[in-house]
Design a protein that fits this description.
Keywords: Membrane, Transmembrane, Transmembrane helix. This is NADH:ubiquinone oxidoreductase subunit 2. With 128 residues, the protein is mainly α. The chain has one domain (2-100). It has four helices and no strands. Helix 2 runs antiparallel to helix 3 (52-76) and helix 2 (21-42) packs parallel to helix 4 (83-122). The radius of gyration is 19 Å and the shape is flat.
Length: 128
Amino acid sequence: MKQAIISVTMIAFAMLFSEHFHSFSVGFTLAIIAVSCSYLIAYQAIHRPQYAMSFLVVAALTKLAITVTGVIWVFSAKIIHSPLTFLIAYALFSVVITYFVSRYQARRRDLSDQQQREIFHTGLYELK
């Protein structure tokens, strides 16, 4: 149900802002790049918990740096026509990408837990 609501919302916004397609697509692209890089760095904390705070701070700074650099570049190159459309697209797709990345990580964790349970039922243990 959540995915249907997200899909309908994205399509509705795309249709509403079709007049300012450049602004919408730049906001969408910048959100994907910033959030993806941030999560790639942040999820490294799972593998190295002793550096978790460092990874989270670096991830937040990376997202901020990519966003600020992208916004400065977009405004200096005069690519977008509507700052409001850009802002709405960036905010919407930041939330959407965050939702999908969280769902992906939860599904990966569930699959890992199921595989480990199967190993425990056989009496064998997984060595890491």
